Amino acid sequence: MSDAKSSLRALPITVIDSQKPVAEEAHAHHHDHAEEGPRSLGRPAPCLLFVADTAINESDIAREMQFHRSMKPEQSRAAAARALVVRELLRREVQRLGLDDEVQSVGNEPVEEARIRVLLEREVENRVPTEDDCRRYFEQNRDRFHSPDRIRLRHILLGASADDVTGRFNARSEGERLIGELKSNPVLFTDFAMRHSDCPSKEQGGELGWLERGQTTPEFDRQVFRLREGLAGFPVESRWGYHVVSIDEIAPGDRLEFDQVRERISDYLELQVRQRELQHYLLELQERYEVRGLDAIEAEAA
């Protein structure tokens, strides 16, 4: 790769990463610039971003921002700008190669997406990992491949809605009180569950049975899978309130053999290779079609 090419940054290939709109701040980034004069009704949106001689104006970026959610509007704007740059690079290459009239859409596929799909199928090598590649990855990452860990637990839910500050404070205090008593008399757990729990499981003494990760609400799941066996020394918080938790048994997942995960590894490695090839291809397109203005937009998001 030439020195000029090596100085280029890799652009993400994903054009749209979400269908949910961001906050209305998306439109707050039509910045005024001294050299353009004040913005007014009827004036074109400022253009600070270019791919060769094609301008991508602030209105285009603002519309694209709804597909790129982020904690900060500046980051959403930068992601939208990158997506539009990628789209324009690929559009120009489709035009250069004369694919406009050759492409047939599949089903309800938009024509533009069909052209990009055909372009990438033609220009980006799709390499399938070999058996040796997969086995090498497996041997280097054996600890990652095991069946899900499981825990068997009981709980006492002291319910309080998320917006009830007083109720949640009282629920936590009650949980701490119950834990204090259970440390001295663990056999009371079933009785306490039947008397105090706001969960239907109270009829079974708080038994939730065997759980795997992802089977409960995320915040509860994250905490209980970190606990050791026995009574938790603090109330576990969730959106439902506070829980007194007893981990009765922990069953680590069994190690999986290569044949059980070979297809998963192959898919993962193929995706990694594909992404690298796409990034290299986009670097080539950036060398062919100059991109201007993206660095400044990304600097605002840093």
UniProtKB/TrEMBL annotation:
GO molecular function: peptidyl-prolyl cis-trans isomerase activity
Gene3D superfamilies: 3.10.50.40
Catalytic reaction equation(s): [protein]-peptidylproline (omega=180) = [protein]-peptidylproline (omega=0)
Alphabetized UniProt keyword annotations: Isomerase, Rotamase
Domain of life: Bacteria
SUPFAM superfamilies tied to this protein: FKBP-like, Triger factor/SurA peptide-binding domain-like
PpiC domain boundaries: 148-249
Species of provenance: Lysobacter daejeonensis GH1-9
Protein name (record): peptidylprolyl isomerase
EC number: 5.2.1.8
Keyword Isomerase: yes
Family to which this protein belongs: Belongs to the PpiC/parvulin rotamase family.
Listed PANTHER family: PEPTIDYL-PROLYL CIS-TRANS ISOMERASE HP_0175-RELATED, PEPTIDYLPROLYL ISOMERASE
Coiled coil: none
